[in-house]
Specification:
The structure is a single chain. With 114 residues, the chain is an alpha+beta fold. The strands form 2 sheets. A 6-stranded antiparallel β-sheet has the order 2-1-5-6-7-8, covered by helices on one side. A two-stranded antiparallel ribbon has the order 3-4. 27% of the residues are buried.
Length: 114
Amino acid sequence: MGGYRLTVRHGPEVERESYESLDEAVAELERRAEQIRSEGGLDEVKMLREYEPRERVHARLEVTGPGLLRRSDAGVDVMGDGAVVPYRGAVMKRKLEPRGGQSPYDAVREALSA
């Protein structure tokens, strides 16, 4: 079993895969996120209020680091407009701001390697 776990929540499907290294896990996170983005965006939804595509999460992909307690978590939300938003944390998510030419995936790798 690998040291890093990738969880992909896309629609009603939840998939989990294990990887030995952080680089492998983040590479698969990027591949899967780009695959989901290529499906196209989401439509606006009207329920109690209107939700624009940029407000809707199309898929959530999260990498969990090794360990039993206090494992590190970071990932990306693929939004309905195609934007990829990196975050850190499992329960209390904090948006990551990629620095100086970093991709959202680089920001996730950096957060998990810190």
